[in-house]
Amino acid sequence: MSKINSSRMSSRKLWFGTSAIVGRLSGAIISAFTTRSLHLDTSSGLLNLPAEMLVIIMSHMTRTDLKSLCETCRSLQEIATAELYHTVDLSSHNATSTSKSRETYQMSYPSAHHVPLDFLKREWTSLDHETFQRQRQFINSMAISPAHGKHVRRLHWTILDVNSRTWRWRGSGEDDWDLDARGALYEPEDEPLWTAFKRCTNISHVDICWIRPWREVTLPPPLFPSARSVRLSGCMTRAFVSRVLEPSSQNLEHLALVNLLRWSDGAQSLPQFDHISALNDYLYENNAEEELEPPSRLMLGALDFLIGRSSLTTLCIGTLGDKSRNGDADPRYDELYSSWSRILNDSRCTLQRFCFDQGVEIYGHGRPQRTVHKQREADRLFSKWILPVLLDSPWPLLRRLQLKGVQSLIHEGQFIQLDNAETQLPQIDLEISELLSKTLPEGASISVDAWASREYEQIYYEDMGVPF
């Protein structure tokens, strides 16, 4: 397999012929095993092609064609299987479609509000149902053929359960919430999923979004030690995040957090439990769920263990910016932005791309208005924690800087401390870009935009993710 793996990289260069030739070869091989007009045995000239050429041909095939090839030609089965499992995309959260929100505040609007598919509080879609069934098939295939896991290089996965309990608003005034319990919550439990993940031993890219309405039933073992790129979104526990990030911390190059939330914790540290049912019993016996510490949905401290251990080249952070302007800042938000500033500063010598996207909720249609007279709390936090790190000292490798959703970055006349000297920062985005350009290499791309790239989810209540 080492020959196949090493040849995959060079194969993408299309070193033999043109893409048109490859397309014709692909069509010929598909037609051959579909019509059975050619016996694909070891004497066939097709099998004498270099492994690199075979990989190119198979990369043009659909998954259905690859499955058929695995069943038809035993001699090509190994290469076809590697290509078939190279990218496993069993996600719904990356789709461009939307779904109806299930948040209570949306009910005051005449028409249902539609939200992105990485939102936790939304209705299941047909894509979710299809994805859930395909995930079951993948888990079963990993149980039957564990060796196939070594071929997986890229994994996109939405943790969901379309049979979970859902709430449907009927708007009748009585019994407004209808509990739909069409399936057992924990059948099967999480172990089959963790086992399937554990068998993917050569993964380089991981993209996981947790939108299931409860936390993990049992914690997984450490996962994906070979991952170089990790993207996390949805709502997770800190323990789960550590099981994904810590094993790969030495290899990690690309990290993206897309409004990553966490399940609530108690005001006091909770004991560790092997199963969610034991946690539920503890909460019930100790009334711990009534002592939640808001706003504990913030994913605090999840990246601190990466400091000094990773060499990030890409860091992307998307977050729901606090749009309040009343000055009543919660210190936990300062803690969150401070943690991001620490990992950003730690990556100064290796970072090549930094993207910070500070979104706001959008009610109905239209865009949020830019405010120039009074800062939002989100912009104060950005100016206090992120901007000083960007302006403090040079970034030798940073070639692309994107700052989105940063409205009215700096008040007119506001001062921040830089290099032990007070420096007045202007309010105009263009002048901010000029200041940033002084710390970046010549020719680096800088984009400062008052508008966020998308809408992000706000959770208005505490939830420990224990649905009993």
TrEMBL record:
Pfam families: F-box-like
Annotated ranges, domain F-box: 43-88
Protein name according to UniProt: F-box domain-containing protein
InterPro entries: F-box-like_dom_sf, F-box_dom
Lineage top rank: taxon: Eukaryota
